[in-house]
Each structure stands twice: as C-alpha cells, then as structure tokens.
Amino acid sequence: MPGNNEKMIVKSTTLPADSIILDLEDSVPFDSKEGARDLICRMLASLDWGTRELCVRINGLSTPFGKQDIEALGKVQTLDCFVVPKSEADLSWLHSETGKGLIPLIETAKGLSSIMGIASSNGAVALSYGAGDLAASLGGAFTAYLDNPYVMTQIVVAARSCGIDPIDDVFFDVQNIKEFQRQAENAKSLGFVGKQVVHPTQVEVANKVFSTSEAELLKAKRIVEAYEESKSKGKGAFKLNGELVDEVHYRAAKAALKGSPKHQDNP
Q1: How many angstroms separate the Cα of 169 from the Cα of each of 7, 127, 166, 267?
Q2: Which element (helix H / strand E) includes 235?
Q3: Taking 60 as the threshold, does the pLDDT of residue 260 lie above it?
Q4: pLDDT class of 259 with cuts at 50, 70, 90
Q5: In the chain, which end has fewer C-beta atoms inside a 10 angstrom radius, N or C?
Q6: What DSSP assignment string belongs to 222-233?
C-alpha cells in the first residue's frame, strides 16, 4: 500500500492477507516522503491490524530517505519487518540496530551476484525481487525478467539454503487475473511460498494458489500413511494408485502436511 494514502492503508486492515507492506519507496513522490513516513508511524500505532505481519518498504539504503526511514520506524514496536529495496550486501547490521525482521529485494546486478550473502543476513525472514529494477540494472527488457526462470530459481535456491522464505515478484496488470494466477502457480511450482500483490483482487487468488488444498492434504496424508506402513514391512518403493512412491515423495508429503515453517502466504 502507498504510504501516503491513508484511505488505502485503512482498507488494508480488512484484507485477507497475511502480511501488509506499507511503501515509502517508489509509490511515494520525493516531496511526500516525510509526510508518508509520519502517516505510517501513526497508522501502525493506531489501527487494529489483527495478526497480520506488518512491513514497511523503506527507501534505498544509499539515500537520505532510507536513513530517515530507519531512524523513524526502527523504534515502532508494532512494525515486524523492513522490506529493503536494491539490497546488495549483508544486512545484519540493520537487524542488529533495530531488531526488525528483514525482507531483502534483489533488484540490481550486484544484488543478484551477491545473493547468498544477502539471504544469509541475520534477521532475514524472506527474500524477494523486483523485475523492473533488475531489468533496468541489467540493461534488459522488463518482460524478459518478469517471469524469468533463472532469476526465480536463484531466489529460491538462496532462500531455501538459508532457511528463509522465497516470495515471488509483483504483477502489475491488475485486470489480468488469469495471468496473475498462471504466474503464481508457476512460482509455486519452483518453490516459492507466496507472491507480492498490488491490488485487493489479487489477494484471494494468491491465497488459493499458495495454500495447500484439501485434495493435496488428503493425498499427502495417504502417501505418508502408505509409506510408513510399507517401511514397517521392510519395503522401499511401492505403487500408490498407479504412481511410484519412494522416500522423496514421503518427505515432500510430510512437508506439505507441516506447512511453511517461517513465513506466510502472501505479503
């Protein structure tokens, strides 16, 4: 939600989203940064947010605005996470200074090449990226990086290696829900646990895609039960409804029943 739009911030408290990101960066004009920062501080303290994770996307760390954002918001108790744009290095110092969780965004060539150091920052809880800024940094086309398998795989590998959650990029064509769903399903198939959303109409789709369905849970339960029964009889791989099942399927089924260990579905 744009940090300078009080009406939209208030509306976000009614959305069925697990996380809310209040933005101080790209959606807020330069001459509105200070006012947006003050508004966010007031809204974080005064509104009923329920159990939602509360995040603020600050301005770039190399800018005066970014430093001011950290100084003002680092002491706000209700704030859970800083979303850090254009992350390019270890951010442990930011967690140490504020105690806040961190969601670094990979948006530059340097950031992508330093991804493991960024993902392993103390306090990092998730990792995401911005296709537009990344494309500009690499001198490429935005459309080439919006759904880029190389970049997406890099995000998933780094996040999973560090025990944090990979979150997929935004999709700006808010009228094209069909394409949003396709991208969300593709992201889930690569290992992402959620997707950033920029419009209320996208929330329900994201929730549906990244939540485990009843059918998936039932199948996972059957695999776990059948595998454990087979193992108790000294057997390994076996067929279940015509499909080969072995230990790798068992581990995946156990993970599905357990759910994501750290983060949520759709910030």
Answers
A1: 24, 10, 10, 10
A2: none
A3: no
A4: low
A5: N
A6: HHHHHHHHHHHT
Q: Cα(199)–Cα(180) distance, rounded to whole angstroms?
A: 11
Ramachandran assignment for 192, one of left (phi > 0), alpha (psi -120 to 50 degrees), beta (any other): beta
With 60 as the cut, is the pLDDT of residue 114 above it? yes
- What domains, with CATH codes, occur in the chain? 6-210 (3.20.20.60), 214-258 (no CATH)
DSSP symbols for 110-126: HHHHTHHHHHTSTTB-E
Cβ atoms of 129 and 169 closer than 8 Å: yes
The set of residues, in sequence order, having a beta carbon less than 8 Å from that of 259 and lying 6+ positions away, is 212
Q: Could you read off the pLDDT of 4-19 as tens digits, one per residue?
A: 999 999 999 999 999 9
Q: Using pLDDT thresholds of 50, 70 and 90, give the confidence band for residue 197.
A: very high
Residue 82 has a CB neighbour count (10 Å cut-off) of 25
